[in-house]
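Reopening this one. Same input as before:
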Amino acid sequence: MSNDIPNFNLLAVFSAVMEQGSLSKAADQLSTNQSTISTALIRLKKEIGQELFVRKGRGVVPTSYAQSLYEQIKTPINELNGVFQSMASFDEQASERKFVISSPEHLQWVLLNSFAALPNQNLSLEVFDQPDNDDRIYEDLLTQEFDAMIEILVPEHPSIASEVLYQGDFAIVCREGHPRIQGEISEAQFMTEKHAVLDRTRRKVRSLSHYTSLDLSKRKIAFHGRSLFSNILLCSQSDYITVVPLSMALQFQERLGLQLFKPPFVYEQMSHYLIWLKKQNNDPAHKWFREQVIRTSDAMSKTLKDRRLRF
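Same output, byte for byte:
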């Protein structure tokens, strides 16, 4: 092996392949093609004199040497990328940048309204629902299809940074004319009534189960909804109950004629995290975007504060 430091571009390509787990995804991230990625890896292999990847099935897996190399170079590569990003310019008054984010339902309209109110109407936001599949939850972030995500759990990935946006309460929701629930709900009633639940998990567990020790597996589940709103709408027209973030329940309480209750069992508040790629820490445009999301979240929290106190 030569004592010369390998070409930075080759190391950057290698780092992208390690982060993305495949040549094709690394090519997408770097806006190039798979052939270019493959050629760069061959050149790096020759420069350092070590095997980096071996074929397995239709893809490749890193060797132990590649794993060790990546652990040692990922931080300086991200820092060097950050230097160049910080030297770029971003003018929020003139930019025509489109930002892309995935977000829980109860925050989507808040984010869209925030961007719609900006003086520069050429700055735009595109919002996606949260991924349904745990196995690919961060895939669109790692491939930079998303600029950021808002999630309820801290990500377990070395390339991802996070910041707490806010903490929110839950509300049990049922219709005003419910035949058995009026004015209050007990834990026994909560477990006895039929539930509408969100057909989505995080780390193989339904969202509410992350915040209470109550054995929710004993609930009587009647409906698996693809969205929180579909669950609320169903409950407004039936005798089912559901649990949603308080901020969303308050949005539709009057419109849909709903009763809201604090859960009659011990639970923790639900944290919301803004997550993004560490290598974008110093990108001026991305820093502005993160600050905009944080300001929007803070404003929403203040608006809901008085209503939450009366809940």
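So the earlier flakiness isn't reproducible anymore. For the record, The chain has a mean pLDDT of 87.
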